[in-house]
C-alpha cells in the first residue's frame, strides 16, 4: 500500500475511530506536544500496515478519516504527497517493520514521563499500585541519538523484542508505549504518566521512599495484567464523554 492512496475512507473504520478518540483524550489531558508526537496502529496480521496521524496535525483535530494508512515496507512513502512526519516514519515505521507484537504504538513527551526520562537514573521504583504496574515491564533507553529518523528508529525497535516490556523510557526524550490495540496502549500510557507523576512528586518531598518488595510488586503487576477489561472500559467511557460533547473525532 502507498501514501498515494491516502483518502478519507471507511477501511478499518472501528480501529480508526478508537485511535482517533485516544488522540483527542491525550490532548485534553495536556499530554500532547504541539503538532509533534504520534500514535500508530497495525491493521494487518503481520503488523506492517498501519494507521498514523498526519504530518503536523494537532491532536485536537485528528479524526478517524484523516489518519494516514501506511506500509512499513514501502520504500517510497517519504517521496510521495501526503508523506508522514519523517521522525514518525523513522520510529513507528521501524517498530511496525520489526516488532509484530507492537500492534499499537504511542509516543509522547508528556511532562512527568519526560522528567523521569531526564534523570540520571530513570528507573521507576514500585512505591504504590500504579508504579508497581510497570515492575519489570519496561526498558530504559540510555543511548539517545537525536531525532528519531530511520537509524534511530531502527535502534529503538531493536530494544522492544521482549513482548513483556511494553514501555520504553526514552532517556532524554520521552516515553513510548506499545499495546495490543488503542485501548490497551492508551490505558498503559495514562497509568504510566500517573505513575511517573507519583514518583517525581514523592522525590520532591525529600523523604525516604516506601518501596515495595520485588515479590509484592510482581504480584501487583500480574494482578493488574490479568484485571478484566479495564482498558476497554476506559476507552468506552472516553468515547462516551467525547460523544456527549459533540466531538467530531469519529468522522
UniProtKB/TrEMBL annotation:
SMART domains: Aldolase_II. InterPro entries: Aldolase-II_Adducin_sf (IPR051017), Aldolase_II/adducin_N (IPR001303), Aldolase_II/adducin_N_sf (IPR036409). Coiled coil: none annotated. Residues 17-200 form the Class II aldolase/adducin N-terminal domain. Keywords: Lyase. One of its GO terms (molecular function) is lyase activity. Its EC number is 4.1.-.-. One of its GO terms (cellular component) is cytoskeleton. PANTHER family: ADDUCIN, PROTEIN HU-LI TAI SHAO. Belongs to the aldolase class II family. This is Decarboxylase NovR. It comes from Ruegeria meonggei. The gene is novR.
